[in-house]
Inverse folding.
């Protein structure tokens, strides 16, 4: 069952990822990205990361993608102008990508031959309680720096959204 | 079909998604799609963090993935504001037309 769920949602994630790259209209790409994020949330759940699965759905698929779709609709972004991509880029890029993936896959299998089997429920350390405890003790300083980062991002967005830039 | 898959399969899936993100980043000509490809790459890295966290039975990887998520949210807010400003000034979303730093 674990393997079936993995292969099902891995296939959905890869299919949506390919669709993201191939679609010319940005809204189709955005919906594909939501598909990738949703299937990744299921995979996080299989890996015992229940808090991260919920955060993935709420923050990524919820907040960030709403921002993307809002901007796409605000700018009325149409389909991409079909500009003839250079043949050299296509002829070299796709084999290079496949070669990269082959090398990475070979290295992962060669360097990590006996990784554990993923069974749902085998790792229960990803609860909100465990993450909250780590976040507010061991990782307190990075957590506080994060709040400064968010503040700067808010200021940046407000400055950029002014009229006279 | 086996009953369970090893953690390395998750890492290979992560590599595939990262490669797709790189391909989208390099091949697309729409600035919003390029930005979405970056989000795809960040998601792929998050999957790696959580898979390693499972292998090591430690929750630290989840915290790192959480921080990546926070940075992605901040980056999306600022990046989309920049895209709005670029569109306001140049009325285009094609990255080939936004090349004034290239001269």
């Amino acid at each position: 069952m674990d393997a079936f769920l993995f292969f099902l949602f891995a296939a959905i994630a890869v299919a949506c990822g390919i669709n993201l790259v191939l679609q010319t209209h940005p809204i189709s790409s955005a919906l594909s990205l939501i598909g990738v994020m949703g299937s990744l949330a299921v995979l996080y759940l299989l890996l015992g990361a229940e808090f991260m699965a919920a955060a993935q759905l709420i923050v990524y698929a919820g907040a960030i993608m709403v921002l993307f779709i809002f901007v796409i609709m605000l700018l009325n972004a149409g389909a991409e102008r079909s500009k003839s991509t250079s043949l050299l880029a296509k002829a070299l890029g796709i084999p290079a990508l496949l070669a990269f993936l082959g090398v990475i896959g070979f290295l992962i299998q060669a360097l990590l031959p006996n990784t554990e089997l993923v069974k749902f429920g085998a790792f229960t350390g990803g609860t909100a309680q465990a993450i909250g405890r780590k976040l507010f003790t061991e990782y307190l300083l990075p957590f506080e720096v994060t709040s400064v980062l968010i503040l700067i991002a808010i200021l940046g967005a407000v400055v950029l959204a002014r009229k006279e830039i | 079909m086996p009953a369970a898959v090893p953690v390395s399969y998750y890492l290979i899936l992560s590599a595939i998604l990262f490669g797709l993100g790189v391909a989208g980043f390099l091949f697309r000509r729409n600035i919003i799609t390029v930005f979405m490809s970056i989000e795809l790459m960040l998601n792929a890295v998050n999957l790696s963090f959580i898979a390693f966290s499972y292998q090591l039975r430690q929750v630290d990887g989840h915290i790192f993935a959480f921080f990546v998520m926070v940075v992605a949210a901040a980056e999306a807010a600022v990046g989309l504001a920049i895209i709005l400003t670029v569109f306001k000034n140049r009325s285009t979303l094609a990255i080939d037309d936004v090349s004034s730093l290239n001269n």
Residues 112 and 162 of chain A are 51 Å apart (CA to CA).
